[in-house]
Structures are given as C-alpha cells and as structure tokens.
Design a protein that fits this description.
4-stranded antiparallel sheet; Aspartate Aminotransferase, domain 1; 383 residues; binds pyridoxal-5'-phosphate; 7-stranded mixed sheet; single chain; alpha/beta; 14 helices; Aspartate Aminotransferase, domain 2; 2 domains
C-alpha cells in the first residue's frame, strides 16, 4: 500500500473526529487515529458484507472466533499461551478499565495511576469513586521510567489496583522485561491487582519489544487483567471491539457481575474486522511499522534541528511523539500556541495529568508530506 498517497481534501471528507473537530485551515495531529486506509483484507471484508446486506446481529460463533483469534495472536506475537475461556469480548478497552475498577475493587479503595497518561485513566478512578493514587513516571536522562520507590511510599492499606499502560501513551515507552519484573515484585509484595492496558502492543517499533505483563509468571497472571484490541495497530477505532484476558477464573467471575446486556453487544463489523486484522493483517502492519519508523526519525531530526527549545525522546512504541515545550517559556500552553500560530492541532499535554503541562503530543501516523507540513508550520510558529 502506498502510504504517501494521502490527499488532504479526501481526508477532510471523513466523518471521524480527527479531521472534523477543527476548521479546514488547521492540520490535525491529535487523536490517536492513523490517516492510512485499513489493510486490504479488512476493506474487502466490509465491502462484501455491505454488498449482501450482512449487517444483522452477529452470531455466537463470531464471538468465539474473536476469542480464538486473540489466543492465537498472543502466542504467535508474544509467545504468551492463554486459555480461550479466560478471554472476554468488550466493546472497547476503556470499558474494561472502568469494569475492572468497579468489580475488582470497592468504593474508597485506592487505584494507582502513572501520569503522564492517556486521559481516561485519570477520569476512571474518581468517576468510579475510588481514591486515585498518583505515581508519576520519573524522567531519568530524558527517558521516562517507573518510579518504584515513589510507588512503594504511596501504597496504603486500601490500595488495591495498579492501572498500568504498556506500551505507554503518551511517552511511547515499551517497558523492558527487567522493568516489568521489578514492578511485578512490588505488585506481589503489596498484594495489588493489575489492570494492564496493552492496546499499543502491536505498535512497538524496532529497537524494543512487547512483553505482556500477565506473561511474567503464574503468580502475576492470576492477579492481572489484560486489555487490548486491534483498533490502534489496524486503524479501526470506530468499529468498537476489544478483548480482556483474565489471569484467574475468580477475577473473571467478579467482572461478570456486570450484566452482559449492560456491557452491551459488539458490532458485527468490529468482531469480523478484528479477526481478519489479527489473522491476515500482519504484512500490512509490518509495512505500516516501517513507515512509522521513518516518520519517527523525521520528527526526531526535525525537532533537534528546527524546533529549538523543544525536547524530545523518540518513542519506542506508538505513533505519538511527546514533545517537552517547557523551555519555550510560552505565555499560554504550547497546545494553544501551535493551534493559533501554526494552525496545527496537537493534543494538550495537560490532559495527560498535571505533569504533562508544558508538553504536547504529536500524532505522526500520516504521510511524510503531511507530516513535513505539520513540522514546518510548527517551526514557523517558533521563529
Ligand atoms: C492507552 C490507550 N488505551 C485505550 C485507548 C482507547 O481504546 P478504546 O477505544 O478501545 O476504548 C487508547 C486510545 O488511544 C489508548 O491510547
């Protein structure tokens, strides 16, 4: 597929929020959708279904197939062998975060969140009436790391759960096995449950790898719920389909106290497209990853040469660049500055927690030429 072949006028005809939230003179580089068309097998599948009016309720077999496809993928990609009976379909990953908090902890219990982080983590805890325990990632020589000393100081008698994000949005960290093992030790020592959002696992770029947290050991698995989907890596977020893996029957039974109809059924397109993505989409994804790596390099070299005062460490995973603009000493936020002066819509770092103030997140999953335009506009806004 030719990822260079993106036309702005055509992108603006899309109905999704990425290209519709801002006026036409603004280039969007915010919400985590890619601009590329989904892979051929997904487009072909959806085309065929529409042609024969195949838009009715999905049958039970579609749900079974989703769970089986996830089990196959977990083993093929990550050498992680899991039981299909422990896999539960969800409408989306964030639903799983809320469901885990509501069923696996009690009101007033504490849940640890590690900002800067994908904003729904920060909303889920207070909205679920749990106490939020902030354990910010530490910046060590420009790289974000889990601060285990701080974590252990903050854990109290009612701290029950860690809401973990790996690979991490917005910092792009793909935590190493060693880092995960050190975290696992703390989890065991303080008897925590872990809700591990691994939605970006298939977007790990060369130089790093993904280790499912639950795969570390049987003791860790039995206290971990893993959430993921095909929606980020295969660019089908509007289809709403995800899965949860429960490391123990007990966690799964507690989660199942949310009635099935309240959780809601999945759309037939999401179920089928996810199966096709996981089973037939890898050649396309390999090409996307190679393209994203070139974009990652472009952002890195451009920021270094042309965005003075903006500090940046290239992400190990995701197509998101986390840009530290604190040294620019702007009057307002860098988000507002680049929106007004560059006509580029980035994500406001402040939405990722107070530690994100002074940062912006740039989505580089677009063509080289659109990315170049975005970067040049940003450079002009700093000139
Ligand atoms: C870390 C993380 N979790 C979850 C989501 C959203 O997943 P879903 O749309 O399945 O709720 C995103 C979207 O960008 C994300 O970055």
């Amino acid at each position: 597929m030719d990822f260079d072949d993106l036309d702005i006028a055509t992108l603006r005809r899309r109905s999704g929020e990425k290209w519709n939230t801002y006026p036409d003179d603004i280039l969007p580089a915010w919400v985590a959708d890619m601009d590329f068309l989904p892979c051929g097998p997904i487009r072909e599948l959806l085309r065929q279904r529409i042609e024969i009016g195949d838009i009715g309720y999905p049958d039970d077999a579609s749900y079974v197939e989703l769970r089986e496809a996830y089990v196959e993928r977990a083993e093929q990609r990550y050498g992680w062998r899991i039981d299909v009976d422990r896999v539960v379909p969800l409408t989306d990953v964030v639903q799983g975060i809320y469901g885990a908090l509501l069923t696996l902890t009690d009101p007033g219990d504490g849940a640890v969140v590690q900002p800067p982080i994908y904003p729904p983590f920060l909303h889920a805890v207070p909205e679920s009436r749990r106490e939020m325990i902030l354990n910010p990632l530490a910046e060590v020589d420009g790289r974000y790391e889990i601060d285990l000393d701080d974590l252990q100081r903050r854990i109290g008698p009612r701290t029950r759960m860690l809401l973990f994000c790996n690979p991490q949005n917005p910092t792009g960290r793909a935590f190493s096995r060693g880092e995960l093992e050190a975290l696992a030790e703390v989890v065991l020592r303080y008897d925590l449950l872990v809700c591990s959002d691994e939605i970006h696992a298939d977007l790990v770029l060369s130089g790093a790898s993904h280790v499912p947290f639950s795969s570390l050991s049987p003791e860790i698995s039995e206290r971990t719920i893993t959430l993921t989907s095909a929606t980020k890596a295969f660019n089908i977020a509007g289809l709403r389909c995800a899965v949860a893996h429960f490391g123990s029957a007990e966690l799964q039974q507690r989660y199942a106290t949310i009635p099935e109809h309240y959780r809601g059924g999945l759309g037939s397109f999401g179920l089928a497209a996810t199966v096709v993505a996981w089973r037939s989409g890898q050649p396309w994804l390999d090409e996307v990853l190679a393209y994203l790596e070139r974009n990652r390099a472009l952002v890195e070299s451009f920021a270094e040469a042309r965005l003075p005062g903006v500090r940046h460490r290239a992400p190990q995973a995701t197509y998101l660049a986390w840009l530290d603009c604190r040294d620019l000493q702007l009057d307002g936020s860098p988000y507002e500055h680049f929106l007004r002066r560059a006509r580029v819509a980035l994500s406001d770092g402040a939405a990722f927690g107070a530690v994100g103030e002074g940062f912006v997140r740039l989505n580089f999953a677009t063509s080289h030429s659109i990315l170049e335009e975005i970067l040049h506009r940003m450079a002009s806004a700093l000139a």
